[in-house]
């Protein structure tokens, strides 16, 4: 898979000049259905904490007002309802990235398959257990194969778009891009997914825990199945799994990972995939990709991909087992 182009939108939106500062700062707030945390070396930043906090919150608000399907007044929600709306640069940017991801994953990650997620109850509605006839009918009217690479032409056709598969990773990259524009080299951006670079306040490369993927584990960090250790480089670190968003009907588990190529939830033994890449958007997309294709294909894909590492946790006859690529630094 080709490396996704670097994210540059945040730097274009928010710029800064050179300066000096003092210590690490920790910013936090509410965004995208949870709490975000941004840790950065303030001695490298050319702006003070208040300015950075305001800029981060403003950028997250712009993301919400552009990309959130849960925000009924967002740009993508209005487009999905068929209302007249002009795509802004952010929507065009994430659409173009999503189109490349769709091509490079052979259709396994498809942001235009939103109606399928809605039908199974994992999108922006509360439906569940659609009939095969219903999913077949939805597959005939949705999907990136109906669209084109040009975002203006594609979005004008009013497809139902759902960017959940990459929105949090994309958000991390935008915040990181803004911090880099201030001169920051040491940072950790956590918006459900993670981007990290450089070292932590103790001067050591960042360490990130991998949650245990048992059904119902809703508390990040409550029980870990390993710790990934950075080498000080720039990394997106994302875990995707089927242990938090699912439901059970008649004794069968239906997980939120939908294969847009079949129209149905996946049913394999891969419990979670933690992927590292040069940016969080790529890591987010590929973690989803691994969860769609399953354990064996994911192993083959990761092993053959330069710059991509992964830690896969899977079920083996009722027992959790683990596999990681050679370059995944597991403590």
Structure commentary:
- The chain is α+β, with helices and mostly antiparallel strands and 331 residues long.
- It is built from ten helices and 14 strands.
- The protein has helices spanning 9-13, 49-67, 75-80, 89-104, 114-119, 132-139, 151-155, 167-181, 280-293, 295-304, and strands spanning 24-31, 34-41, 187-190, 194-197, 207-211, 224-229, 234-241, 246-249, 252-255, 258-259, 264-265, 270-277, 309-316, 319-324.
- The longest helix has 19 residues, at 49-67.
- The two termini are 27 Å apart.
- The model is unreliable at 1-22 (pLDDT under 50).
Based on the model shown, name its key terms.
331 residues; alpha+beta; eight-stranded antiparallel beta sheet; two-stranded antiparallel ribbon; 14 strands; globular
Q: Into which percent range does the helicity of residues fall?
A: 25-40%
Order of helices and strands: HEEHHHHHHHEEEEEEEEEEHHEE
Instruction: Describe the sheet with the most strands.
Output: 8 strands, antiparallel
Beta-strand portion reads 15-25%
How are strands sequenced across the largest beta sheet?
1-2-3-4-7-12-13-14
Judged by helices, strands and strand pairing, the structural class is alpha+beta
User: Tally of extended strands?
Assistant: 14
Give the termini separation. 27 Å
Provide a short characterization of the protein structure.
With 331 residues, the protein is of the alpha+beta class.
